[in-house]
Inverse folding.
């Protein structure tokens, strides 16, 4: 297959895909090496940058997806109305943040940090496939451990968990209360001690 044709096919697939597509998947489709596919994706992105397109190819969850650039978010929000049912409550976002930063984590650990019972928010996050059961803790009762999913990465447009903002960055953005910061640091120190 000639490069120009493969480039058009890759662009078309990324355009219609509702989920990230890996270079390996694209390579099988266009019958090329993954390295060649990645080179084509870089060429497409360069074209989008040079022509100042409103979209880009983002690397998300070990794949690629065409998405709009963040500078157009305000305009897109004005245009696009999200269904209320698809929004996450503040409680669900709190629990999800705890899972994202502390995973693997038990329900009891989530509740200790939040200070409230979290059964319903955990159920909601499981139903939306933003978290999953990743195992059991080696402790009395063998409680379930929760972690984030690929759907979580897709939902928040992250390549991997290393792209989560640090606690310091969150504090600068939101003015995180000192008590919450102490909880996160205490938990982090406890996890470090336990893992040693």
């Amino acid at each position: 297959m000639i490069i120009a044709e493969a480039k058009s096919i890759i662009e078309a697939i990324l355009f219609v895909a509702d989920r990230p597509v890996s270079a390996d998947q694209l390579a099988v489709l266009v019958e090329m090496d993954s390295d060649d596919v990645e080179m084509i994706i870089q060429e497409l992105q360069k074209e989008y940058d040079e022509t100042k397109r409103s979209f880009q190819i983002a690397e998300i969850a070990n794949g690629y997806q065409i998405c709009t650039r963040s500078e157009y978010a305000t305009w897109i929000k004005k245009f696009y109305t999200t269904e209320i049912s698809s929004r996450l409550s503040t409680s669900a976002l709190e629990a999800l943040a705890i899972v994202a930063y502390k995973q693997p984590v038990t329900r009891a650990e989530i509740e200790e940090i939040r200070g409230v019972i979290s059964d319903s928010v955990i159920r909601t996050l499981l139903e939306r496939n933003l978290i999953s059961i990743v195992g059991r803790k080696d402790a009395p009762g063998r409680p379930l451990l929760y972690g984030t999913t690929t759907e979580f990465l897709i939902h928040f447009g992250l390549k991997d968990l290393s792209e989560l903002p640090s606690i310091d960055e969150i504090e600068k953005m939101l003015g995180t209360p000192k008590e919450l910061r102490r909880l996160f640091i205490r938990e982090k120190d406890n996890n470090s001690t336990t893992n040693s």
